[in-house]
Here is the input.
Amino acid sequence: MKKEIKNVKILEKTVRLDKAQMLKQVQHDMEVVQDDMEVYGHCERMRSNPAYHFARSADKVLSLFTSHFSQKFGFTLAEGATHVALQHNKRKFAFTLAEVLITLGIIGVVAAMTMPSLIQKHQEKVTVAKLKKVYSVLSQAFLQACNEYGTPDSWELAKNGEPAVNAAPKIKQFLKVADDCGVNDCENYSIRGGHFRVLRGGIYGSGYYSNDYKLKLTDGTELSFRENSPVFMALVDINGQQGPNTMGKDIFHFAFRSDGTMVPGGIGADPKNMGFSACNPKMEGWNCAAWVIYNENMDYLRCADELSWDGKHKCSD
Here is the structure.
């Protein structure tokens, strides 16, 4: 008897659930019929009046950053159409013009703040690569010249300030030369007295380098040789007349010793050294070649007083 009563209660509960589901289904069917009747009415009016336009505020545009809605729904039934499909409560996300302009403005400000630093770092990497290439090319040419003619102490080099006509002609045989200016004052060269700058600012004296032997390589590199027996030196402009034509930035110094060795200017000389040849923006910048080649940076332009060969090699250390 108890089992039969339990089964009756379960049946009653099932019937109640079925009634609720049926009620929801009936309500849904009535909504669909109502929509169909509405569309049918519009279609009938369209048939009787082709100019009839149907518009409805069912679609809305919602900004991603604001809470306002803007009405944006409307269409015209095409001729011969029999029904229209409606989409209720559909939201389309989009940016407003003001938001786009603000975003672009922020991007512009960030770019203006970061681009100069990025460009400078890129240019410094290019300088390092070019200077290391020139060092390699000159070293090989000097070595071949020594093998051919002996060490510089037997080259009968000129005294300081005299026409440097002995070293360069021997070395240029092993270089790819595009132009040979000799000891003339060629206007298409940047390494001439009064035509290039020193690191601390200002023009280098116009009376210097007038007797130097000048060459231009096929890659645009300029060389200016000065003799001072029993040694000689060379100034190298890695990009010719492109600029900035400044010691320690694109013009660097190399020394050729009497024993047949070649060294970049500034070996072992700390940038914080305040001597005449220091690689320091406060001085002329003669001793920067070694720092650039061996440490592969030009951080002496920013923190020279903090750098040393046995300590910090870059500002971020």
User: Anything to note?
Assistant: The first helix runs from residue 2 to 48. Confidence is low (pLDDT under 50) at residues 51-75. The radius of gyration is 42 Å. The longest strand covers residues 222-228.
